[in-house]
Amino acid sequence: MMTGLNVTFISAGAAAGVSAAFGAxxxxxxxxxxxxxxxxxxxxxxKTLFCSMCSAFVLQILNSALETKTARIGNKYSGLIxxxxxxxxxxxxxxxxxxxxxxxxFILMGAGGGLLGALFNQLxxxxxxxxxxxxxxxxxxxxxxxxxxxxxxxxxxGFVSINTAGYCVRWNKNGMERELQNLTRSWYCPKDKDSQxxxxxxxxxxxxxxxxxxxxxxxxDYSDSENSTIRESKDxxxxxxxxxxxxxxxxxxxLFLTACWTYGIGVPSGLFVPCLLIGATYGRIFxxxxxxxxxxxxxxxxxxxxxxxxxxxAFLGGVVRMTISLTVILIETTRNISYGLPIMLTLMVxxxxxxMFNKGLYDIHxxxxxxxxxxxxxxxxxxxxxxxxxxxxxxxxLNPQPTVGKVVEILKRTKHSAFPVCVYTQSLPEEGxxxxxxxxxxxxxxxxxxxxxxxxxxxxxIVTLLKKEQYFDVGAPELPDLTHSEMTExxxxxxxxxxxxxxxxxxxxxxxxxxxxxxxxxxVSPCAPITKxxxxxxxxxxxxxxxxxxxxxxxxxxxxxxxxxxxxxxxxKAKMDNENTIHSTLTxxxxxxxxxxxxxxxxxxxxxxxxxxxxxxxxxxxxxxxxL
Length: 628
Description:
Elements: H1 4-22, H2 25-35, H3 42-68, H4 102-134, H5 140-164, E1 168-171, H6 178-181, E2 196-199, H7 200-205, H8 209-218, E3 221-222, E4 239-240, H9 245-262, H10 272-294, H11 304-320, H12 324-334, H13 340-355, H14 361-368, H15 387-390, E5 395-397, H16 404-413, E6 418-424, E7 432-434, H17 442-449, E8 451-458, H18 459-467, H19 484-487, E9 523-524, H20 530-540, E10 544-548, E11 554-559, H21 565-588, H22 590-595, H23 597-608, H24 612-615, H25 619-627
Helix pairs in contact: 1-2, 1-3, 2-3, 2-12, 4-9, 4-11, 4-13, 4-14, 5-9, 8-10, 9-10, 10-11, 11-13, 12-13, 21-25
């Protein structure tokens, strides 16, 4: 069961993780807000920000201590992932990283990233569905065999690609930063005294993903076509193909397919960094084509690393559909605020294009796992729905003093995390479910309306009471109330109902739920629109919302499961079909209604199982009667 403290820990943990990984404390907070939480308030904001800042600070201390044996604070030690500094080829600050004319190019790159991201998500959706039905269902051994198979395939493809697709490219030792020199791989390439050849595919494929991204961002040369050496002057020189186009295309295809295949397997595979690497490769391919078309020769006017960065943002945005948080994360990682506008523009376009085809990958997997994470707001088409349309009418409830046997029976039969505590205005029936056999009949409706809500008690509270043996014989003196510390003793892992041992004599004893229940839970009218229900759940962090009519009778309950998109879509479709059926029935009976309206409506509504009084309240039927 998820509590308020659980939500705080999860949100703060997500923010701290992103902060430590990318050295982006503000980006971590925004990531937790945008993707990791369905409830947010001001207190949670400063808690996650404090946790995120502490994470970044501690990581800097540890990184500097491991590297220099002293504790230092600086950009060099922030973040586990460092993409390097974006600067001119000659090391000065006089070149143009991007210009206003490049915004159109960035929009095109964002559209391409959105298309690639939508394709990635759709392929992964098919693979995940197949994996759920045919791999995960067969046990852990089969899942582990899948992991081993994927590892063998990826290693084999990489080894074969080095020998068949890799090109030996020449570079000069004096023209590269020493850090980038150490990252190159010269496999199967000859060596000479003045210069060295490196395998472009092997350099990208057999480095860590962080280093491969750094190479794509910063490894490019303006060189003399005759001797391929770097000049320190500002002469107009051709851009050397640091990585051959064919190698980049093959590397992109292999990385795209393997990343799509590995996400969702039985081991943590990650998504952020692989998508950034795929996008950076896509950006370098785009930069090469752009340079070949317009023949840029001035290194101060064309910076390939910018296109690699924009490509990384475009593809990652097309996959996860994040905008604000991803913009801040990339700005904090690159430590260059000038990239804020192009990154934001690219991410917006990538999200718009991707949303035309499917959802973000996180949303897809949340939906496949049926996790009750709410959207920010309901779809506009659903605004006609009311609480009574999608509430759970098969209500599980308890008396204020239920018997232990009935409580255990309900807990074992259901997985609900809370139960309304109700009293019956006439004779007091046994606890259980109303409307199980006749949820839409008038008898069931009247029966539910005679329930009076007394409060709401959590499953964890009931289990704790059973574990603490807080039950007594009927008519016997009640036991002393448990303190708050005793009620939360088992937090966060409360005992399971199957782990509690009860004797036969305990089954007839009673529990006083009224002493531990919430006597004033949040309630809503059956006529409340879905927008209001969404607002209550999102703004207050609710887990349960009891539906109470204007006479005080309990009609049902709404949980986050009832607010999931697939459930709401099913309810909306059923309601529209019902209204269309009623409308077509009235239209076909036009003559009969004019001749004998009362008897015709009675016969038609009996056929479709609708009460005539309720039928006349429908908007479609009212408009139809007015036209007759």
